[in-house]
Amino acid sequence: MRKIALLLAMFMAVSIILFAQSGVIKGKIVDEQGNPIPYASITIANTTTGVSSDENGEFSISAKINQMLVFSATGFQNKEVSASQNMRVTLARGSGVVEDEVVVVGYGSGRRLSSIVGTVDRISATKFKERPAASMVDGLQGQFPGLQVFTSSGEPSETSSFRLHGVGSLGASSTPLIILDGIQVGNGSLVSLSPQDIESYTLLKDASSTSIYGARAANGVLVITSKKGRFEMAPTITFGVQYGVSNPIGVKEKIYDKMMNAEELLDWQVKTGNKTQAQADAIRTTYKNANTNWYDVYYRKDAPYKQANLALSGGGKGSNYYISGTYYKEDGSAWRSWYDRFTFRSNINTIITKWLKFGATLSGGVDKRSTNPYGSNNTNRGLSPLRQPYFSPVDSTGKRYDFIPGVGAYHPQYLAEKVLSSGFNYQFNPNAYIEITPIKGLTLRTQGGYDAYIYRSSGVTLPSYLGSLKNGNASESFDQGVQRTFTHTAEYGFNLKDDHDFSLLAGYEWIDYKNNNFSASSAGQTDDRVILLGAGPNNRSVGQGKTEYAYESFFGRATYSFVKKYYFDASVRQDASSRFGANNKKAVFWSAGLMWAAKKEAFLQDVSWLDDLNIRFSYGTSGNSSIGDYQSQALVGLNAYNGGTGWVLSSAGNPNLSWEEQAKSLLNIQASVFRKVRMDLSIYNRDTKNQLVSVPQPYTVGFSAITQNVGSLNNKGIDVRFDVDVIKNKIAFFSPYITVAYNKNKITELFQGRDYWIIPNTGVAWVVGKPITFIYPLWKGVNSETGAPEWYLPETGEGFEVKTQKDPSKVTSTFSAAGLQQNTGIQRYAPWSGGFGWQSGWKGFYFNVDFSFVQGKYMINNDNYFFLNPNQFAGFNTKKEVTDYWQKPGDITKYPAWKYQFMQFDDRLIEDASFLRLKTLMFGYNLPSKLLNQTGFIKGASIYVTGRNLFTSTKYTGPDPEVDSNLGLGTNPNTKNYGFGINIQF
Amino acid sequence: MKHIFYIHHFLNRKYVLIVLSAVILFVSCKKNFTELNPLDSLSEGTAFSDPSKIELVANGMYQQAAVGVYDAGTGAGAGRGYPFGAASIEQAEMRGEDMVNLQTFYAITYEATYNSASANNANHWEQLYSLINQANVLIEGASNAGKSGILPADVADQYEGEGRFIRALSHHELLIHFCKPYADNKGSGMGVPYREKAVNSPAAVEEGAAMGRGTVAEAYTKILADLDWAEQKLPVNNSKGAARVRKGAAIALKTRIKLHMQDWAGVITEGAKLGTDATSGTFSSPISGFILEADPEAPFKNYSSSKESIFSIANSASSNGGVNGALPAMLSAASTAASPNAGRGLVAISPNFYNASFWVTGDKRRNLLVQQATDPKLWFTNKYWDYVNRANWAPIIRYAEVLLNVAEAKARVGGTANLASAFQLLNAVRNRSVPAADKYTTEPSDLVLAILNERRIEFCAEGRRWPDIHRLVLDPVYKTNGIPAKILSAQLKADGSDYNLVTRPMLTPSKAAIPYTDYRFLWPISSREVSANPVLRDQQNPGY
Question: In chain A, N or C terminus with fewer CB closer than 10 Å?
Answer without folding.
Answer: N
